[in-house]
Amino acid sequence: MELPKPQKSEKPAKEYAFTLDPFQSQAVGYIDKEESVLVAAHTSAGKTAVAEYAIAKALNNGQRVVYTSPIKALSNQKFRDLQEEFGDVGLMTGDITINPTATCLVMTTEILRSMLYRGSELMREVAWVIYDEVHYMRDSERGVVWEESIILLPHRVRFVFLSATIPNASQFADWICEIHHQPCHVVYTNYRPTPLQHYIFPQGADGLHLVVDERGKFREANFQKAMASLQSSSVDVASADALLSSGNAKNQKRKRAAGGKKGGDQLTGLHRIIKLIMTRNLNPVIVFSFSKKDCERFALALNREDHTDDVEKDLITQVYSNAIDSLGEDDQKLPQVLALLPLLKRGIGVHHGGLLPILKEVVEILFAEGLIKTLFATETFSIGINMPAKTVVFTNTRKFDGQEFRWVTSGEYIQMSGRAGRRGKDDRGLVIQMLDEKMEPAICKGILYGDPDPLNSSYRISYNMLLNLMRVEDVEPEYLLRASFHQFQREQDAPALIAQADDLANQAETLDLGSEEEAELAKEYYKMDQQLLLTKRKVSSIAQKPEYIVKFLQVAGRFLDVTIDDENFGWGVLTSFKKKGGSGSGGEAGKLAALSNQPAYTLEVLLPCVDHAPLLWRGTIRQCRPAKIGIDDEKLISMRVFIIGLDNIERVSAVRIFTPQALHSPEARKKVAMAVKEVQKRFPDGVPLLDPIKDLKIRDENFTTMIERADALSKRLSSHKLAIDFSKEDRVRLVEAYENQIDLKERSRVLRDEARSFQTMAMKDDLKKMKRVLKKLGHVDANGVIQTKGRTACEINTADELVVTELIFTGVFKSLTVEQSVALLSCMTFGEAIKDDEPTKGMKSFLLNPYTKMLEVAKTVVQMQISCNLDVDEDEFLNKFNPAMMEAVFAWCKGMKFIDVQKLTGSFEGTTIRTLRRLEELVRQITCAAKAIGDHELEAKFEEGSKLLKRDIVFCSSLYL
């Protein structure tokens, strides 16, 4: 259905010096009609022009307008840009408030939400709200803030949503129409003003290969040529390493250790690419890397490169000096501050979360002015900051996402590659992927042509939100759940699930099961066969016990029959056996069963498998399947290393063969494959197995019973009418048809149950349980009326509100000094996971004692939640409180210089500053909470804490302000 064309107003609210693109003029037309609009377009397509028009319209009409952005740094940039354009602009980010009575207010989404919670008068005057980067709503941590603020805004407010391309834009607009009873138009464009060319640079090869041209055509021949030029040996090592990357630390260390030469090749390749970019004048270039350390390593490795002339060097030094002059004398001597200038003067920049905020801003300003020619950045640079380049380079197309190494998703690739090609300056943008391992064409096309990530709700209930809503009249927490995008998406999915269930049920009814007698026989035979399978599994689970099986796995070469993710890979060869202290699983076939409930043993096994187009399987991409001997072409079958646990072993053979120590080379694996074939040839009736009684020495009565039961079931099956009177083909056909029918009916039932749950209110049970927790902890009374404790928790949203409130009310802070109190709170704002088994080792007693008290309080809170049947993991909850920054924060509050404080941390300077800034925000919130409940002593203590934190480089003002 075509949208109605918006009416042109007499005089536009804002004139532009350029001709608007069709999507811009369409969006502007809807704003003129005072109707909401979602503009989903690529990076640098010109979405900001639409936002500026909405601001101009509001100012012309004397109405207030709010511009929200996801991060403070982006808010600062927008404030500067909009102030230059309109003048009457204010800024509110929590850290800073400038001109709060301005007609146009730039703020973070968190500030907007807290204004709505408190029923701020300002909200009554707002006519337009602009949400920049609204696709942030899918962020698992902070996405809920966008959703709540959108729901809580009055119906008369009009919206301008600016987003990257999202495949479900119309679903989002439908949601806005439903909850705010107003039209919301979608203006969507996939058009890129500057087309992109995508190249592959194979490691160790002789140049670039164009795989997608500016018209979007995939060059299959070029892609195959690029893959062929990857040396087979390096490919084999890489793919073996990829197989071994199960997400556990030991494998990653091994991967890094094996990557010494690989890292060198990567640097050589990067040097060649940068040289080519500079000689062909394809700069500026952004080089994306998925690790902060790699960004710095690559930048420092270009020590002989110089991309700037004397005039540019002077300009860079001037900008740098002006920025750094605002710092104290000691801060100017920080290693990061001293190390960056020589790089910048040569036109090379670094941008990542570990950089000091002031240095990040210097880099952004120099890059925007064209003085940085090569920028090494992590993917955060591609989010929000509008700074395009001519060329984008990926140093790696795999990333570690906290659990495993995986290919980048098409959404991530679109976001980062979108930085290539500057509108009005370049006729095309270049994207270069450095590749050090073979990639299937299907994976490559999936990354290059895949859809951007959809905008899915990440809605969750927090205690802070619950208390704030219980405090507001006429707003029930249930209303927020019913109105959430999460609920809207669920309800929209329900009809499709019911249709799918009906389709499966119809398929089940139309299956050919033969006559009634044949169907009954198939049913009997199938049930008996399932019983036999279950009995055999019980037999295997006893035989897999370490006390029986481990002694036969100590030496490499043992034949093992292996099943992974319910798929039997057949006979493989054991190459190594380890006893571990924790759980371990992995391999290319996806994550295996966790071994945490038994002594953790891991085995490396060579198994025959076949590469195939990737399938998404339980959240991981599988790139191989079991080899089907006699069906698969032998040339396609390869031996790969898999990491398995004891529970993946189906049978253990009496046969052992010799295996070479180094199995990385294809030749060594080929020898093992030939040996496996030879053994199978010598034993045509099946490879001899270890006898459970004689060899494994199993003396378990249950085991004997199970073996006898399995024998009896086998005899009953072989004497069944279906086995005697029917041919093998007919028997297999009838049993498979019955099995398919059972499977289809079960899948249909599961879908119906899911659809039913989608139509009831999401998280309703959680809401009840959370209210129970609040009552038990004394935040609300039996009638749901907020008490003093609850009013305190309403103010806290930077850390766990329940734990902070308990710390206040159990008097933990009373006996602590200001410095101790602030140091203790740092456990809640240092966002990194606890790395050591003993995080408190060597901690001074004046910090250890408060930390121990905090853990006791946290334990009480989490056990209260568990007692109310909430699904909370106690260990996971307690591990959120990381004491690693306590000593550094204590020293900072005592007045120590930042350069010395940094030596007490094991983190980047930027991480330390982020922790201290979040900490100051938390301290400020506790000050407000103490004021709200009339605790003047606590208020004074934390006011003092805020003053101790706010000094020098940690709180130096933004260069954008």
TrEMBL record:
- Molecular function terms in GO for this entry? ATP binding; hydrolase activity; RNA binding; RNA helicase activity
Q: Name one Pfam family in it.
A: MTR4-like_stalk
Q: Which domain of life is it from?
A: Eukaryota
All copies of domain Helicase C-terminal, residue ranges: 269-473
Keywords in alphabetical order: ATP-binding, Helicase, Hydrolase, Nucleotide-binding, Nucleus
Compartments annotated for it: namely: Nucleus
What GO terms describe the biological role, i.e. biological process, of this protein? Answer: maturation of 5.8S rRNA; RNA catabolic process
Q: Which PROSITE patterns match?
A: HELICASE_ATP_BIND_1, HELICASE_CTER
The protein in question is named Antiviral helicase
